[in-house]
Amino acid sequence: MNHGAHFMAAIAYVWNERKQVKTTAAYKVIPTASEEQLLLVELVRSVSAMRTETVMQTVKEVLKQPPAIAKEKKHLSLEVCMLQFFYAYVQRIPVSSLVDSWPSLLALLKDSVQLGLPAPGQFLILGVLNEFILKNPNLESKKDQRELQDVTHKVVEAIGTIAGSSLEQTTWLRRNLEVKASPQIMVDGTSLEQDVEDLMLTVMEASSFTPSVYSVHALTLLAEVLAHLLDMVFYSDEKERVIPLLVNIMHYVVPYLRNHSAHNAPSYRACIQLLSSLSGYQYTRRAWKKEAFDLFMDHTFFQMDSSCVSHWRAIIDHLMTHDKTTFRDLMTRVAVAQSSSLNLFSNRDAELEQRAMLLKRLAFTIYSSEVDQYQKYLPDIQDCMVGKLPLSMCIFNLGDFVGLVSWTRIKSRPEFKSMFNGDSPLKVHLSPGLGVICV
């Protein structure tokens, strides 16, 4: 088709003009096309000269050398608008057309990674890749499958770099990253670049730090697609190739999860959703097990938004379930803390608080489990609660103890609940008032 690049550039320009008016609905990193925009998709599909392969090649040409069009439009990114159109186009073409055009799509994806597109454009590249995987997860040729894996690795790495853009290095050590002390902006993907530019001036007036405005969006998108995407792209005998990529992603995720400040809340929520989704796949365990356990043991663990609790329950359940050592490690820590005696050089309040912290985590672990999951450990749990429980418990230990007893009862079968009733050692050990609370 003659002047195909100019035709597609004009489509991208009109696409921007037909975008939806902002709504108060929940934000989306990749915007949903409006009815008027979808008419443009049908228009291109109806042009006989614009076969699927031709569209892909022309879109790649526009991305590499955008025609000089509408430069007076302050907020127009022709590349982003072109990719928004292409994302909607890929969603609506038949699977057979998409599969037959794989070489052209692969070339487009490879070039896009190297072009240094704006962050919203890179989000759309991941969206296009995800749509292809959803429609055709397995390629017949091993060479094609390996190329799909390689381009997936590069695209995810690029999004991971954006996700880490709100972190800064505090020392020369590479792994010592912390969250920048700057606001984290959340805007809808429909007009992502324009909204970010409009908000920048306000933010800069209130902060001496340049805000990394796309990091939350990158984390949110990874939380939505990464776990399933990698599981589909890499076959069961190739899962080991995923671990280095996930380790790199966790390098950016963990610093956000260590920071419980209010301004980091959007990133914390996105990261906990990402970790929760990854934890559901056992082969990913090596990439996050140690970090998740360390976060669980951190004294600020429970300082979180209530919406994060369900995700942490899933993570802790997977953490404790998929091997035989992690829960035993937790039980050992609780037992050691309960049996350790105060000495002349220890701080009594600090030691009691440490015991309380471990009781809380044991209670949360049981709360996150299935019924009877820890049935065989009930004698050990009872021993932690009775045999080595200090009679002179301080008030914060008391509340944690009640929580542990309550969740142990709820997660046990009726015959095991007798441990907490009648004249059991546990109830006798408690004061009458506390006994009523626990029963």
From TrEMBL:
Where is it found, in Gene Ontology cellular component terms? cytosol; endosome; trans-Golgi network
The stretch of residues making up the signal peptide is none
**Where do the DOP1-like C-terminal domain residues begin and end?**
85-386
* Pfam families according to UniProt: DOP1_C
Query: Which InterPro entries does UniProt cross-reference here?
Result: DOP1 (IPR040314), DOP1_C (IPR056457)
- GO BP term (any one): Golgi to endosome transport
Q: What is this protein called?
A: DOP1 leucine zipper like protein A
